[in-house]
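testing teh design pipeline on a random one, pls ignore if ur not involved
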C-alpha cells in the first residue's frame, strides 16, 4: 500500500501453505488457476492465511528485497477476496505499536 504522504510502501505479508489451516486460523483456499498463476503448482492444494501476517515498510525493510523476481502472481479477483478477508483483521489491530522507528 503506497503512502505518498510519507513516501513509503506499507507491506502486509501473508503466509501461503500447502497444509490446511487449523481451526483457529482464518485462511482462503487458493483456486487451482491461482496456484498455477502464482507458480505454486507443486501444491495439490494451497491456502493463504489471513489471520497471521507480518507488516513491513518496503523502503526500510531488512527482509523484503524489492529487486527479487516474483515467482508469479494472483489475479485481481482473488486479490480482492484476500483484501476483503484481511480487512476486519487489520481493523482489529489498527492500534498496533509501530516498532519500525
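output:
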Amino acid at each position: 500500500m503506497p503512502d505518498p504522504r510519507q513516501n513509503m510502501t506499507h507491506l502486509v505479508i501473508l503466509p501461503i501453505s500447502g497444509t490446511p489451516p487449523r481451526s483457529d486460523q482464518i485462511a482462503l483456499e487458493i483456486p487451482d488457476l491461482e496456484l498455477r498463476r502464482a507458480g505454486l503448482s507443486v501444491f495439490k492444494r494451497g491456502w493463504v492465511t489471513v489471520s497471521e501476517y507480518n507488516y513491513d515498510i518496503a523502503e526500510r525493510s531488512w527482509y523484503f528485497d524489492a529487486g527479487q523476481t516474483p515467482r508469479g502472481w494472483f489475479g485481481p479477483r482473488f486479490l480482492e477476496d484476500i483484501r476483503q478477508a484481511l480487512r476486519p483483521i487489520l481493523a482489529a489491530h489498527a492500534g498496533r505499536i509501530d516498532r519500525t522507528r
